[in-house]
Write a structure and sequence with these properties.
single chain; about 110 residues; mainly alpha; about 0% strand
Length: about 110
């Protein structure tokens, strides 16, 4: 039978993850190269008298909008949000009418 001792407990292994595909030095070199290329392009554009063009990011789409366009439920929900909030009485007319009827019954039965 195993006994539990406070002084001889094993501790869990620590989490140690080293990323395989991420190299911070390579990322830094890439950023420096992009800055250098951008600076050279700006200098060439100034020398030629052209306006400096800012690079446009292409190929990136908003995943949320794409997902919404593919689902009927989320499309309807988004349309309802665009319509705006309605007042309490327009959304809950039956509940308000039921409360009024119950108050009237309570008044006539118990207070008369």
């Amino acid at each position: 039978m195993g006994m539990f001792f406070f002084y001889n407990n094993k501790k869990p292994r620590k989490f140690s993850h080293s990323p395989i595909l991420y190299d911070p030095e390579k990322e830094e070199r890439k950023e420096q190269m992009e800055k250098r290329i951008r600076r050279i392009r700006e200098e060439v554009a100034r020398e030629e008298g052209r306006t400096i063009e800012t690079p446009q990011e292409t190929g990136k789409t908003d995943f949320g909008e794409e997902f919404l366009s593919q689902t009927k439920y989320l499309k309807r929900r988004k349309e309802k949000e665009k319509e705006g909030n309605r007042s309490f009485f327009t959304n809950n007319v039956t509940i308000v009418l039921l409360i009024i009827v119950l108050l009237a019954i309570f008044y006539f039965v118990f207070l008369s």
